[in-house]
Amino acid sequence: MLDKVIRELRSFEGIKRKNAIGPFVRKFVDHPDNVIASFGEDAAVIEVGEEILLLSADGIWSKLMEADPRWAGYCSILVNVHDIAGMGGNPVGLVDICTIGNQEIYDDITEGMATALKKLDVPMIGGHFNPDSQQSSIDVAILGKAEREEVIYSDRAEVGDNIIVGIDLDGRVHPSFDLNWDTTTMKESEEVRKGLNSMKRLGEKGLVNSGKDISNPGLIGTTGMLLEFSKKGGLIDLEEIPTPDDISFIEWLKMYPGVGFTVTASEENTSDVLEEFKDSGLTGKVIGEVSEDRKLNLRYEGREKTLFDFETEGITGL
Amino acid sequence: MLDKVIRELRSFEGIKRKNAIGPFVRKFVDHPDNVIASFGEDAAVIEVGEEILLLSADGIWSKLMEADPRWAGYCSILVNVHDIAGMGGNPVGLVDICTIGNQEIYDDITEGMATALKKLDVPMIGGHFNPDSQQSSIDVAILGKAEREEVIYSDRAEVGDNIIVGIDLDGRVHPSFDLNWDTTTMKESEEVRKGLNSMKRLGEKGLVNSGKDISNPGLIGTTGMLLEFSKKGGLIDLEEIPTPDDISFIEWLKMYPGVGFTVTASEENTSDVLEEFKDSGLTGKVIGEVSEDRKLNLRYEGREKTLFDFETEGITGL
User: Fold this and answer.
1) Which residues form the PurM-like N-terminal domain (chains A, B) (predicted)?
2) Which ipTM did the prediction report?
3) Chain B closest CA to A187's CA: distance in Å?
4) pLDDT for A164-218, tens place per residue?
């Protein structure tokens, strides 16, 4: 199992495609003082007057658009709100750039978007519409806000922290796209938002040192990005990873979950973190520990093996 | 000439493609009270705490990307900063969604973006990178800020206002894309930003009732969008439109200028508006007047003809 997981994750496109971030970002690193955080975080953190604002943008993978435009439209909203949630913030509003090949796709994308906007209670407040393209795409950016002392960053994991996931296991592999673990379309707005708000509550209570929303690279891949960005390493125990029934473990590790976060917290705060995830309707579980050596190791049945050595092969290169 | 202008503008893709906005927007109109303005403006206006924020997004037309990826990357920044400038605001930061087909296009787009970021002195603070698509695209969103009483809206033209353009005539048709009037690549940062800041100064002094940045629909098309959104009409005198030498008039009317704005102001404030544009290095000119009937009429050599009747054929349908 251990060798298979490592082989599968190393060749997983959802992780590999993050390699391109580092070289891209290095072209744009010159920031004024009011930019508190930028690339590498789920959202940039900017100080404007007295306010701490979050700004993020997410495109929808072309594979998803080809598979199901309605679900792509829905996800374009969900993933952006998820980014703001992952930082411990509140969403304020979205803008979109919608590029459409034909009327049928248009109807599907906008219906998916409208459904998600309603469920997540966030307004679409502007954007740009390209009615005349060959290929359809939906890109969305989001503005959020947060309290200065409550923002949860990805680069602040501390050696000895427990690695904890908080994730909604109650869902289904989306019928249109087998890399999406859908836990929101079948639930009421209040329930979905309660799960998303778990990070905000963790931030308010100062319970975690770092955190990130689980996205395309999956549960382990996203945790790896957090550890790399924190200039740390870690050991993840595969047997501790909470997994839904009726899904293969490898498949699960590649899922983009509807609502899921990976955080690190001190031993002292760990039980409170788990309690908070539980109160939010998520399954919280300690899955490993942050280490000083810059390697992400996996353990299974007492055996350990390195998945990524960040000294030699980063996920993002950040 | 008058008939030719009307025929050409009515069939101009840069204007026609705006028809799709109205039906799109009507799916997303449910906004909370802190959203002061949204669709139809160059940027949404949102109140967050004590701050007035601007949020906008712009995609680059696929035709431009096909013609010249470097220029497309440059424009992706310029048009977003132009949006914030058009509202009388200051840019704070940008996020991008960059989708890349191959390494050569990647180098060109990012080089164009980096050049524009430096010239316009705005930071790129985050985004999303798709390294593995068939078709390349660059979408950018921008956060800006403004003072509550100084924001310039598109929907507030008043009957009897003069219609005034402030535009940089000192430029060239871009060699890669004949719908772009490039006035920025050959100029120093300070000069470009001075022109862009003209609107901020007009807002500070409260000199205009409405305004908009001139974009893809061109000088008359953009003015038409402003009048339609203000639920007014207007008469534009073709002979008064400032035009560079060595370019055909029809061609000029379809240009996306590097720096150009259309505003409306009372007769009383008109000379101050013209002065402000001049001080900003732009050519300011009264080109017409706002009227009550919801028609955009054009005049040439004493003859008048309707270009758009907003009662029956809107540009955006907003």
Assistant:
1) 40-145
2) 0.92
3) 22
4) 999 999 999 999 999 999 999 999 999 999 999 999 999 999 999 999 999 989 9
Q: Are B77 and B115 in contact (CB under 8 A)?
A: no
Total Cβ atoms within 10 A of residue B292: 12
Neighbouring residues of A75: CB distance < 8 A, sequence distance ≥ 6: A60, A64, A112, A116, A180
Provide, as residue numbers in chain A, all residues whose Cβ is less than 8 Å from the Cβ of B52: none
For the record, the structure tokens of A163 come out as 């690695």
Residue B301 CB neighbours (<10 A): 9
B-contacting residues in A 145-184 (Cβ below 8 Å): 145
The total domain count for chain B is 2
Classify residue A56: in a domain, yes or no.
Answer: yes
Q: Do residues A132 and B131 lie in contact, with contact meaning Cβ atoms separated by under 8 Å?
A: no
Q: What's the sign of the alpha-carbon dihedral A76, A81, A82, A84?
A: positive
In a domain, A315, yes or no: no
Closest residue by Cα to residue B108 from B135, B84, B74, B131: B74
Could you read off the pLDDT of B146-178 as tens digits, one per residue? Answer: 999 999 999 999 999 999 999 999 999 999 999
Place of tokens 């008469």: B235
Give yes or no: residues A264 and A281 share one domain: yes
B186-206: pLDDT as tens digits:
999 999 999 999 999 999 999
Cα–Cα nearest to A149, from A92, A81, A90, A206? A206
Identify which of A13, A95, A137 has the shortest CB distance to residue B137.
A137
- Beta carbons within 8 Å of B106's beta carbon, 6+ residues apart: B100, B131
In a domain, B26, yes or no: no
Nearest CA distance, A95 vs chain B (angstrom): 6
**Phi, psi angle pair for B120, to nearest 5°:** -95, -5
Interface check A31 vs B, CB under 8 A: yes
Q: Decide: B205 and B280 in contact? Cβ < 8 Å.
A: no
- B160 and B122 fall within a common domain: no
3-state secondary structure of A142: strand
Question: CATH code at A211?
Answer: 3.90.650.10
Chain B residue with the nearest C-alpha to that of A132: B17
Decide if B49 and A46 are in contact by the 8 Å CB cutoff.
no
Question: A 43-102 residues with CB below 8 A of B?
Answer: 43-44, 46, 48-51, 53, 55-59, 61-62, 92-93, 95-99
Which residue of B31, B50, B97 is in closest CB contact with A49? B50
Q: Does B280 touch chain A (CB under 8 A)?
A: no
